[in-house]
Design a protein that fits this description.
By secondary structure, the protein is α+β, with helices and mostly antiparallel strands. The chain has helices at 7-21, 33-38, 60-66, 70-73, 87-100; strands at 42-47, 55-58, 102-111, 117-129, 135-143. The chain has a five-stranded antiparallel beta sheet, with helices on both faces.
Length: 146
């Protein structure tokens, strides 16, 4: 089973968001991992806790925004989602998330697979914290329309 439809990973994403941000990630109760992956009208992606964090999840909206397939996205170093000049700013954001649990109203420039630069606005980045308090990574969401 991939993380795209893994109910435990879905619970980690949505539970962490609710505990840290204070509101649900999903627009209505009862929507599950399949809806978040395939139908959500907003991007959600996450990376692990490695020294050079790698993406472990990207829903279809995130795949469309960045132009990568699931197989291209998963395992890719998350730093590559920003151009080199933007990476210091991205790292400051991730450090603030690690310190504060989440950051809302994030705005920045990201780069797609084809080199196209696009703005991320109204983004929320949060820690993925399991029920025992263990940090499992970080995740981000932002509005995206194709």
């Amino acid at each position: 089973m991939s993380l795209a439809d893994d109910p435990r990973f879905f619970a980690l994403l949505t539970g962490s968001f609710l505990r840290l941000v204070g509101r649900p990630l999903l627009p209505e109760p009862g929507l599950g991992p399949g809806w978040l992956y395939a139908q959500a009208p907003f991007a959600v992606l996450s990376h692990d806790t490695g020294a050079d964090p790698r993406f472990v999840y990207a829903n279809r909206a995130a795949q469309q925004a960045f132009g990568y397939t699931w197989d291209e996205f998963v395992g890719m170093p998350s730093r590559l989602s920003a151009e080199a000049p933007e990476r210091a700013e991205r790292q400051r954001l991730l450090d603030a998330v690690a310190r504060d649990g989440f950051v809302s109203d994030y705005a920045g420039i990201r780069v797609a697979k084809d080199g196209r630069r696009f703005p991320v606005i109204e983004g929320i980045v949060w820690q993925l914290v399991d029920e025992d308090g263990g940090v499992r990574g970080q995740a981000a969401t932002f509005p995206f329309t194709s």
